[in-house]
Design a protein that fits this description.
Rossmann fold; five-stranded parallel beta sheet; 173 residues; 2 domains; alpha/beta; 5 strands; 7 helices
């Protein structure tokens, strides 16, 4: 029977040298842009308020692999926002055909602004969410953003044509 020598100090030294060499190789690969630095993010919970079904499909593609809840009306949105927690919330302003024509109507209870007020009145809801107002109606978006910022929320207005870029920057896959 042979004698087995156990040299813990030597083993630690070899592990350290190996790890150091791997770190050196990785640093060189990073410097030349040859290392894979991508990482898969975990799925997020996303909420969308929008009446346009084409946009629903657009969001489903952008957030494939994530949990996406969609509401078309203010009442549906209130139910989702009161019971679920979201990482990202996307709010449209114009939810009915007559909203597209003008902002001179008295139907704000059926617009995205009603959800801004709803969240403003319930400061405990959706505190950690990033909120993006994505309407094409900039004149209506700004009051929504201002209302949501009253409670210190992380919110911004992004015109719909720029939304894809914003999503890729915030929630890169």
């Amino acid at each position: 029977m042979g004698l087995i020598l156990y040299e813990p100090d030597r083993m630690l030294y070899l592990l350290f040298v190996h790890a150091s060499n791997m770190g050196l190789v990785r640093n060189i690969l990073l410097k030349f842009g040859l290392a894979d630095v991508s990482s898969e993010r975990t799925p997020i919970n996303v909420f969308l308020l929008d009446d346009d079904r084409r946009r629903h499909r657009w969001f489903e593609k952008r957030f494939s692999g994530d949990e996406l809840d969609i509401a078309e009306t203010v009442e549906e949105a209130k139910v989702f926002l009161a019971k679920e927690n979201y990482d990202a919330i996307f709010l449209d302003h114009d939810l009915l055909p007559h909203h597209y024509e003008t902002n001179d109507h008295d139907d704000f209870s059926n617009t995205g602004f009603a959800i801004a007020e709803f969240l403003n009145e319930r400061a405990e809801l959706q505190r950690a969410a990033t909120i993006i107002v994505h309407t094409r109606n900039a004149d209506a978006a700004i009051p929504m953003v201002q209302k949501l910022r009253e409670t210190g929320r992380n919110v911004e207005y992004v015109a719909f044509p720029m939304l894809d870029l914003k999503i890729r920057n915030y929630w890169k896959r």
